[in-house]
TrEMBL record, chain A:
Residues 95-302 form the ABC transmembrane type-1 domain. This is Sugar ABC transporter permease. The keyword Transport applies. It holds the Pfam family BPD_transp_1. It is found in: Cell membrane. InterPro entries: MetI-like, MetI-like_sf. The keyword Cell membrane applies. Keywords: Cell membrane, Membrane, Transmembrane, Transmembrane helix, Transport. SUPFAM superfamilies: MetI-like (SSF161098).
TrEMBL record, chain B:
The lineage of its organism: Bacteria, Bacillati, Actinomycetota, Actinomycetes, Micromonosporales. Keywords: Cell membrane, Membrane, Transmembrane, Transmembrane helix, Transport. Belongs to the binding-protein-dependent transport system permease family. Gene3D superfamilies: MetI-like (1.10.3720.10). The keyword Transcription does not apply. Residues 68-261 form the ABC transmembrane type-1 domain. This is Sugar ABC transporter permease. Its main location: membrane. It is found in: Cell membrane. SUPFAM superfamilies: MetI-like (SSF161098). It comes from Paractinoplanes durhamensis. CDD domains: TM_PBP2 (cd06261). The chain crosses the membrane at residues 9-30, 72-91, 103-124, 136-159, 180-205, 243-261.
Amino acid sequence: MSTTTPAAPTTKAAATKTTHRRVRLTDRARKERNLGWMLAGPAFFVMVAVTGYPILNAIWLSMFDYRLTDPGAKSFVGLGNYATILTDGLFWRQFGVTVIITVVTVAVELVLGFALAMVMHRALYLRTALRTAILVPYGIITVVSSYAWAYAFSSTYGFVNPTFGLGEFDWFGGTWSALFTVCVAEIWKTTPFMSLLLLAGLAQIPDDYLEAAKVDGAKAWQRVKRVILPNMKAAIMVALLFRTLDAFRIFDSVFIMTAGAQNTETLSFLAYRQTISRVMIGLGSAVSVILAILVVLIAVMFVKVFRTDLSQQRGDRK
Amino acid sequence: MKASRSTQLFWIAGAILIILYALIPVFWIVSLSFKAGDDITNKQFLPTVWSWENYKTVFASDLFTTALRNSVGMSIIATTISVILATLAAYAISRLEFPGKRLVLGVALAITVFPVIAIATPLFNLWRTIGLYDTWLGLIIPYLSYSLPLSVYVLSAFFREIPWEMEQAAQVDGATAWQAFRRVIVPLAAPGVFTAAILTFFAVWNDFVFGITLTSSEAARPVPAALAFFQGASQFSQPTAPIAAAAVVVTIPVVILVLLFQRKIVAGLTNGAVKG
């Protein structure tokens, strides 16, 4: 800019004018920056302060042998707690339970959610009633829905056994049947959310595509497989990601329905029990950290698959 | 697509099935709550005699009424603060250029990914040290940080659809950025803010993990946590029926919000997730 200054007075005037405008522009940009941080700052601060510190604190404490009832014996063990956990069969069994619950519920929810979304998309009547009804499981407190299902399956109070002629069958007496009830409760509660996300994807498919497929003689399931599913891949991935992360952290329904009995403990439950019930702060923190790492790994995996998938899709279209 | 009569019937049948699917467990807990005395073990869907007894028990119990007061109070306070902070942040994110914008969004995403239980246990330690354990504030703070990401995403999605030009026009007419925000954007954004408030309320109202880890008494324990520790009229009677009644009471606000605002809730959920 300085090279332009030793010029004729007119250009000089013009030059000062532009510099002046530039200063005002940066001034404006600076004001925008300040306003941006003024507005976003408080929310950012609350999010970071309340989660950032506990996360770091958990990582720190996870390296100590520390029992709340015996603080004098607190000692640094490095990665010892992690070794203890990862070599314990109990941890792996709970990991397995968590994975089973996650895979089963998310798979069923995807299929069921898709069916729900199709009906919501196509039904011309009962639309409002349908959407209202479906939001009730979404909005209801998880603890409440867990109780509803626990009592429904209960051999003392429930209507499930008499309805299906199962006599006195004790659903909560065995690992698999207890896990089944937990999965049913989870699926009931969270399928509506899944179906709404899928509905949003479904609504973005132009009707012409389906018309064209129909004219070409595609049967209903062919239209679903060849036209609908490929065109709502993004919505499916988002729905799967949200639900998988959520399902992996399952806690409320296990706590209420089985309290971890019959080997139905999940990883979240393990973290809770170590810290709060057994006050093994160090060990519990290590479980929390492992759980967090696993969740992040799942998220990263999804995003990776998602990216390659989308770019492939784009490649196909070209 | 014009559907024939028979396909329409098929979809109607599907719709009725879904409505039954969604509502039967709710009717079941309602029916359970009206079963008095030994009726609770009749193992039938409906009570033989409908009775308000369980509701009387529940409302006569301090444990439930204090928990209800805690839940209502903390949910309203947390929702209000969360939505105000999220509205400001979402405005900045969708309208302004500033360094660190991606950082804010990244942190929000990281929090939604991070397991609640992994935060709750360190907070349990921290709160006990600084005296926030078993207080309203001790729960409201984590509610804020956990509901903020959701409301920030939902609101940014809404704000992105508000016409830019209106704000610029106001600024050309001499309004400052702040005035443009308050006079032009706020009225346009109000429906989105309202939706975010409903979703935030649902999230906070639903909390269980913080409720059981960060409280030890009636001082701050919210209803979902209180339900898990509920005792019957005497220590030896099963609390099943009162729990059912209490469960129905805390479901009523959810049902009312859903009935009144189903359209907004659906829009909020799908916008925030797919476009956000």
